[in-house]
Design a protein that fits this description.
globular; mainly alpha; 14 helices; 286 residues; 72% helix
């Protein structure tokens, strides 16, 4: 929470330490973070993560780390659904991660992780049900200090702001502002990983208040930051949502089309070909 994820070697070191000292549970937690969670937070190519998933799952199963293996399987399914075009993406059931059996009522983290994986799909596929899911955070209750909460909280905030802007519903506005306040407090306390989160949430807050010029400034700042940093998932998502803002609030079809094309380019660079296929059907591109 105070060190840049880009330069963090602690997860791999923790994995080696755990394996060398018989602390298998800690080692597998660190393996999950090193191979799956951290690369996702940094927007690494989906194919890179998919390549690592089977090896990690195999090692977890060999060491009888059943819960960790099931979490990794949920992640594998999530990235596969982003990677592979679906025959009928309008069917919400296709965005559901197959539920792994929870063997103990105390295994809250596995249940929360499955919820997290599903929510990421609902967010990136712009599913209408995502906003209601975003109000609560099972992951924060199951593992309050887990670093993945940074991106989980941010994505919930993004989803709620977009829903608030589109529907004008007060409950979405209220929860979105609360999350923005939380993330700004993390920034104030020295978290270097969420600086650009603030840029984007500031854009959505300004858009919500009708301060369109200010919103555009923040959108562009956020997009420039993530594009320069190589955060492919957020470069894609930010361009997509900026396109949505330009069309809905500015009625600027030309710039909205350009931003949508940029979103498609970044989603393709990230490896989210399922998402690319859906965006290419947009009426803006006809």
């Amino acid at each position: 929470w105070t060190l840049p994820l880009e330069n963090c070697t602690a997860f791999y070191e923790g994995y080696l330490h755990g394996m060398q000292n018989g602390e298998v549970d800690m080692g597998m937690h660190c393996l999950m973070a090193h191979c799956i969670s951290r690369p996702y937070c940094l927007g690494k190519h989906i194919d890179q993560i998919l390549e690592e998933c089977p090896r990690a799952i195999m090692q977890m199963e060999e060491l009888s780390q059943t819960s960790q293996a099931k979490m990794a399987k949920s992640s594998w399914q999530m990235f596969s659904l982003l990677r592979n075009p679906q025959q009928d993406q309008e069917d919400p059931s296709l965005l559901m991660v197959e539920k792994q059996t929870i063997e103990s009522p105390d295994d809250l983290l596995l249940s929360a992780w499955q919820d997290f994986a599903e929510f990421q799909l609902l967010l990136f596929y712009d599913d209408p049900s995502a906003a209601e899911r975003a109000i609560k955070s099972p992951l924060s209750k199951a593992s309050p200090g887990y670093f993945v909460l940074m991106i989980e909280t941010f994505h919930r905030g993004v989803c709620l702001y977009v829903a608030a802007r589109r529907t004008k519903k007060r409950k979405y506005k209220r929860h979105a502002k609360k999350i923005r306040k939380t993330i700004r407090s993390w920034k104030k306390n020295g978290n270097p990983n969420i600086v650009y989160y603030c840029f984007f949430l500031d854009a959505e807050q300004a858009a919500l208040e009708g301060k369109h010029d200010e919103a555009e400034t923040h959108y562009k700042k956020a997009i420039q930051f993530v594009a320069r940093s190589g955060y492919l998932h957020h470069a894609a998502l930010f361009n997509e949502l900026y396109s949505d803002f330009l069309l809905r609030e500015r009625n600027d079809k030309d710039e909205s089309r350009y931003r949508l094309e940029e979103a498609i380019r970044y989603y393709e660079d990230w490896g989210a070909l399922g998402k690319v296929e859906r965006l290419q059907k947009s009426s803006l591109l006809e």
